[in-house]
Amino acid sequence: MGYDAIMSLGVPATGATLSHAHFLNHHFAAHASALPLFPATLPKHILIKPSRLRRTRAAVLSSAAGVGGAVLQDAAATALVVGGAYALVSTFDNLTRRNIIEQTLSRKLVHILSGLLFLASWPIFSASTGARYFASVVPSLNCLRLVINGLSLTTDEGLIKSVSRQGKPEELLRGPLYYVLVLILCAIVFWRESPVGMISLAMMCGGDGIADIMGRRFGSVKIPYNPQKSWAGSISMFLFGFLVSIGMLYYFAVLGYIQLEWMQTLERVALVSFVATLIESLPTTGIVDDNISVPLASMVTSLLVFGY
């Protein structure tokens, strides 16, 4: 103890204690002046180099910029596809209104082109996980439009005339509505990573759409078990469904979204096309709409043969 401490404790200040106290005061005073308030160097695990800080900050900024860039890309792609879809439907509305093409042909051309162009637009969206939801905005808007007009909350004569069979608003709540719901389902569930959605849309849009056009023009010979369907329509569906499916798969494969072994793929797509054509030919139109049965059969068969 120092001198002051000895005195504060009431210890008698003898000669020995005073001598010892002076020694302690001198010893601690000499070493205390040499001790730094903080250590000169920090342990290595505490130190963060400036270069590492710069790299971390750059990575954070790059990630934020990437997310922002993806959102902007998806928003722009959505606007582009919405504009294209509106232009497509408006074009056929005008052609039908002017009696340049008949209502039935207009409806089927919209059926074929809108779905296939929607499918072909998927690569313009970003690689983010939210891209599929941006893409689904387009058919979702059409879905809302169909519901509003189908419930007669508003009346768009051009829309009703171009996508319905008999020009009745309530028809929009059946086949056309099922059609856009399938587009939404394929975009969100399957997207660009699976051939299932691509084949299902190709069969529903390309195969079934062409079957109706060809069947009406060359379908004099009917299928024995369904007088409402023709051999010309069914053969056309099989061929065009197969060709459009292969074309779409090749399109996405070239862009690097899927990898396929093509000999097996040809066999698998032929099987899917056959099953979808068989389902479409059955006398079940009054029970299940083709826009449900054809894509559903295509999805199930594609999942079985492709596995993903």
TrEMBL record:
First-level EC class: transferase
Source organism of the structure: Sesamum calycinum
Example GO BP: vitamin E biosynthetic process
Alphabetical UniProt keywords: Chloroplast, Kinase, Membrane, Plastid, Transferase, Transit peptide, Transmembrane, Transmembrane helix
Entry's family note: Belongs to the polyprenol kinase family.
Protein name from the UniProt record: phytol kinase
Source lineage: Eukaryota, Viridiplantae, Streptophyta, Embryophyta, Tracheophyta
Any GO CC annotation of this UniProt entry: chloroplast membrane
E.C. numbers: 2.7.1.182
Membrane topology: Multi-pass membrane protein
Any one GO molecular-function label of the UniProt entry: phytol kinase activity
Catalyses which reaction(s): phytol + CTP = phytyl phosphate + CDP + H(+)
Keyword Transmembrane: yes
Subcellular location: Plastid, Chloroplast membrane
Keyword Plastid attached: yes
InterPro entries: Phytol/farnesol_kinase
UniProt pathway annotation: Cofactor biosynthesis; tocopherol biosynthesis
